[in-house]
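Fold these two proteins, one after the other.
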Amino acid sequence: MRDVMDNILGLDGSASADTRRYRRQVIERLVWALVDITERQGSVYEPNHRALIMRLTIIIGDMTARISHADNAAFSTIIREAAMLVSLLQRRQPETAVFTVH
């Protein structure tokens, strides 16, 4: 999970003076990580699971402003839980080999 957190939190400028802007960027990265997982591996998940992941992604995206205004403990907890979810979903992805067709 550490690599997922590093990817989500590894923004240019890190925690700048504008905390809410930084938090919005963190949430946007999280949302895009979830979208990427569901789009790239859509056939791996059952349609119901994929729909649930997309619904969660939409909820997080819609709540970006509220999450970015949360206190430090709540924000940290939300991001930690979301990063664990992303990590779990990435582990469920099958290893795919890259083949070149000539």
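Now the second one:
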Amino acid sequence: MMMIDMEYNNTARAILRKIRVSPEKLNIVAAMIRGMRTDRAIGALTHCKRRIAVEVRKTLQSAIANAENNHGLDIDNLYVKEAYVGHSLTLKRFHPRGRGRGGRVRKPFSHLSIIVEQRG
């Protein structure tokens, strides 16, 4: 017999992988929307000046669409339950410096996971 966890029946998620931004910068935008209603979070991300806010908004809209289409949740009662960031790969490059030396340049990538929950 399969047990169904009642906590996860009212949640939906969307994951965006290998985003070309550092996890620290992405986490600033993700922390901004944690715990917010989804309609207010989309409004905040629309007016955010950071470049990565566009990708976070698209991922949030995907989570809302997953909640509506795959889980049958009411989109008017959705909140951002979790928005967390993980570290992905790092490209390592060299930049020429003075006297024949090379400076290391790290180009980090990130993962973003957004989980929305129906309350009420």
